[in-house]
# Entry
Amino acid sequence: MSFAALVYKELKELLMERTILIGIIVMPLILFPMLSFSANIGMSAATQTMQEMSILYIDEDGGEFSKLLQELLTSYGLRLRIINADGEPLSLMSQYDADTALLVPREFSEAIVAGKKGEVKLYAKTDEISISRLRQLSTLNRLLSLAGETLGRELAQKQGINYEFLRTPLEARSTIIIRGSIFEGSPELLSQVFFSIMFGVPMVVLLVTITAGTVAATSVGLEKEAKTLEILLTLPMSRMKILASKLVGSVIIAVIGAAAFTIGFSIYLGAFMNVGADAAMSAQAPSMAGLINITPSSVLLIGIILLLALLLTLGLGILAGTLAGDVRGGQQLSGLFTGPLIFFPFLILLFTDLEALPPTAQLALMADPFTHMLQALRAALSGDLTLVATSLAAMALFVVLILGVAAWLFSGERLVTMKIRLGKAAREPYT
Amino acid sequence: MINEKAVEVDNLTRYFGSRQVLRGLSFTVRPGEIFGLIGPNGAGKTTCFRILATIIKPSGGEARIFGHDVVREASEVRRLISYLPEEAGVYKNLSGLDFLKLTARIYGGDSAMVDEAVAISGLGDSINMRMGAYSKGMRRRILIARALMTQPKLAILDEPTSGLDVEHAVYVRDIIKHYAEKRGITFLISSHNMLEVAYLCSRVAFIHRGAIIAEGNPEDLLKQHRVQNLEELFLKIREEA
# Structure
């Protein structure tokens, strides 16, 4: 009963704290959708101006393939103003008030028929280099390449040549055996899957854990800043119960914060997926999804890893809050504790395996609890249960150690007397 | 227990690093009395209160609350006391009522306990306001209410009226007096206000540089040292010390 009352108090105080409410919960829900909205506006504007853009098509050739190129570009949605005139292209652009022009020179069709490359020139005038203008021009260039391929296919068909065969006479197939399981796919695809595992999933886990550390540090810092700590410590309940209420409150807030981030980030990613998806990505998506085989047991393992990681950072957050004098100090110290411990192994293991490192570097990383978290995550996703078990055991040891130190500090008088500011420790001499 | 002492402080010492703040502090408080610990800033009052409230430990000596050692039996001591620090704050996002309900739940109290606390606070409808919006006087009232609502055997109040205007200060003093006389709560208070001490306390101890330099009934002490008031008394005994 009294424990629930304390957790309620923690939640109410933390949820109303500006740094938590705005920084961890509201900001992701506002910032990411705003970024998404801005990106959508930008990309929609670029797409719209692409469709509205009038391109001066200077057809000096007037031949069969020039006509075919016109038709292809029109079929892609481009608006062409076709002129059959000679002249200096820039002058013609000024004359016709065009900022983009395609010049199809004389003997374009003849060159193609003769087995030579037909040259098309793109002219673009711009007052300033903007993302939307660059996007327009790169899209136009891509459409020209696409049209070139189609022209080649038409030409090959007329000449009775197997275009697809000549284009890629070599087909490379890869079979990669991962711990006995056969993966039929390109190394590039595997690389994408690997990065999505080693970057995406840990990022979410890291986010939740870092958030929890900050919240725990804030929880203790608030008590110090508001000068409510001393009354709290003289209540007829154990310090461990008080500590536990702070841990539970912090976990709940961290989970809410993680949910807010996930929702906001999904909205943000959605903006790019909607506008930027192309055929190649769509084609790869099913096989990638098939490779990341998330089973109920792997989800359960990730849950256990997340719980242990949360306890680790909560312990570090409590340590930070205990040593600091106020909320800001606690948050700064928490970042100092958790930031390097989390990001060093994350960045190193993103580019190499632990086993590939020199023994001293391996030992140094093994002394970092978050190395084991990343190893456990990777193993859980790839189904290496032995590595999961050893990594979880190592994490559990670190949890016991860190929470033990946090509990020791929390139960002693250092909670009241210690204040660390910017690396300077001082005991406050209350008299 | 007839001879039971509410507070028994025996040769208490405390160091912060190499600095000695308490130098063999000794005094006793009888059950039901209002005892004043008086001294200038830095004399060691707050350190003494923090030791008695089990927040920090002494470097040497002993302190007992109703027979319970503050170090070895800290849990028992916490059940007997209420401590109000001098600069105690409030949970700014809780209403006064939420805070009192929270305290009642922690102490296993019922709605009658909350109702009494609301009455002690005298905050009226403001009890439903966020405590972050309270004035200093209102905050002190709600904290006094919290300290007394649990019917502690000993209330340790560090500068209970410090910084309060006349209206709030008089209110708090009357509450202390009432609860000592009607409910038998023992009070250990510190104050810089000698008029307040004279009005409230049945016995006082003067603390200077971490040690007691005089202890007794205020009237007896005035007669003994042939001075008019407690301020003169303090200056005189400090010089003698």
Observations:
- Confidence is low (pLDDT under 50) at residues 275-291, 422-431 of chain A.
- The interface with chain B takes residues 1-2, 4-6, 8-9, 12-13, 15-17, 226-228, 230-231, 233-238, 413, 416-417, 427, 429-431 of chain A (CB under 8 Å).
- The longest helix of chain A spans residues 187-225.
- The radius of gyration of chain A is 31 Å.
